[in-house]
Design goal:
Helix 1 packs across helix 2. A hairpin with a 2-residue loop joins strand 1 and strand 2. The chain is mainly alpha-helical and 78 residues long. The chain has two helices and two strands; from the N terminus they run H-E-E-H.
């Protein structure tokens, strides 16, 4: 079970690092708006929330990929 979790979490973490780096190299945390209002958080808090958000999205994508690889395919898929 631990090997399965690390198979999903480690690549998704590395992808989240790249996604956050790309996102925050384009957008400044002080300029982000949430529901029409300015975000009143220090930049480090926005970076922290961002890394967990991107990690969650990348982990879901990794889980779906792993599921698709591990499921059996029928003889005639279409």
């Amino acid at each position: 079970m631990l090997k399965l979790a690390m198979t999903v979490l480690w690549p998704s973490f590395l992808s989240a690092i790249m996604a956050e780096g790309l996102f925050f190299s384009v957008f400044d945390p002080a300029d982000l708006m949430l529901l029409g209002g300015q975000i009143e958080m220090p930049p480090i808090a926005v970076y922290t929330i961002g890394i967990f958000f991107f990690w969650m999205i990348c982990a879901i994508a990794s889980m779906i990929s792993l599921y698709l690889v591990k499921t059996e395919t029928s003889q005639h898929p279409f």
